[in-house]
Amino acid sequence: MDLVTIDEARAHCRADSDDDNLLEVYGAAAEESAQNFLNRRVFKDADALDAAVLDNVAGDDPMVVTPVVKAAVLLILGHLYRNREEVVMGDSASAAQLPVGATTLLWPHRIGLGV
């Protein structure tokens, strides 16, 4: 996890340190899901962003994490932590949907929407 700390993840999920390994997995998945939805890379700080730009791995329109993006990552992480089994959705819903609150927070920062 780069965008949220284990302490933030633990506090958000009201989890014990016994679950740290699980929180790390769900946190990394939440960060990747948020970045996939945004169609852009998100970095923990300006130094990490600058290093990625220099290494030519920053991608198109990278950004430094904001409180909104961090909150969305925590919402996704919490959803994954609390719903450890697959959530079955109706026929019209995509299996890759994010929690509504996370989508709402991330949408204004999304790029490459097409036509």
UniProtKB/TrEMBL annotation:
What Pfam families does this protein map onto? Phage_connect_1
Task: Fetch the CDD domains from UniProt.
Answer: gp6 (cd08054)
Write down the InterPro entries for this protein, in alphabetical order.
Answer: Phage_gp6-like_head-tail, Phage_HK97_gp6-like
Coiled coil located at which positions? none
Q: What is the protein name given in its UniProt record?
A: Phage gp6-like head-tail connector protein
**Where is the organism placed in the taxonomic lineage, from the top?**
Bacteria, Pseudomonadati, Pseudomonadota, Gammaproteobacteria, Lysobacterales
